[in-house]
Amino acid sequence: MAEPHLRAARASDLPAVAHVFLACWRGPYAAFLPRRLAPRHDEASALALWGPRLEPTPHGGLVVAELSGSLVGVALVLPEASYLASLYVDPAVHGRGVGRLLFTQAASVCRGTAADRMTWWVFADNRAGRDFYERLGAAPTGRMQAQEEFGLPEAEYAVDLAR
Ligand SMILES: CC(C)(COP(=O)(O)OP(=O)(O)OC[C@H]1O[C@@H](n2cnc3c(N)ncnc32)[C@H](O)[C@@H]1OP(=O)(O)O)[C@@H](O)C(=O)NCCC(=O)NCCS
């Protein structure tokens, strides 16, 4: 079976990155988000959301995963804040190790800074996402917030970078 590999994102990846995001939005996210939010993302909004994220940044930025020549996952890491801003894997390849690879790379980028932990936010109702992170050794910090765009509760997670 083919193994996933990582590379830095390129501007030409935008349609594929938007596709992965939308597949998660319409798949696993639809299982726990309120139904009223379903129309909030479509092809156009996904392209608008991810376009600026593909702009080159001095450090970190967007990493993509490929499997058998197709882009199947994306992670956005902000090493200056030791912060994982996004992690999405195409549902068609869930369970193939792509999420683990992207998460490990994000932690590795943050490990190169002075930070002793990497943090991020997860929708509180995203049980599958939370279980994935906990499987990889992360834990909730106990902090909660209302997500900026939709006001839904999010739980903060952290992983110890010294591990
Ligand atoms: C969560 C997500 C990133 C996991 O990606 P993935 O490629 O399917 O995960 P992997 O195959 O790398 O799995 C890594 C480990 O986590 C475990 N895991 C994955 N999903 C899991 C789940 N829902 N519940 C429990 N464990 C899970 C796997 O069994 C594996 O453990 P193992 O290697 O010890 O067997 C992916 O399902 C996804 O993109 N979901 C939608 C978006 C999302 O929720 N993102 C995270 C919140 S921001």
Walk me through the structure.
The protein is an alpha+beta fold and 163 residues long. The protein contains 4 helices and 7 strands. The protein has one domain (5-160): Gcn5-related N-acetyltransferase (GNAT) (Aminopeptidase, 3-Layer(aba) Sandwich), CATH 3.40.630. 27% of the residues lie in helices and 31% in strands. A hairpin with a 2-residue loop joins strand 2 and strand 3. Helix 1 packs across helix 2. It starts with a strand and ends with a strand. The relative contact order is 0.16.
**Tally of helical segments:** 4
Annotated CATH architecture: 3-Layer(aba) Sandwich
- Which consecutive residue ranges, at least 5 long each, have pLDDT under 50? none
N-to-C SSE string, H for helix and E for strand: EHHEEEHEHEE
Overall pLDDT confidence: 95
Question: Helices, strands, pairings?
Answer:
Layout: E1 5-8, H1 14-26, H2 43-50, E2 61-67, E3 70-78, E4 83-89, H3 98-111, E5 117-123, H4 127-135, E6 139-146, E7 153-160
Antiparallel strand pairs: 1-2, 2-3, 3-4, 5-7, 6-7
The structure holds coenzyme A.
The site of coenzyme A has 19 residues, from strand 4, helix 3 and helix 4.
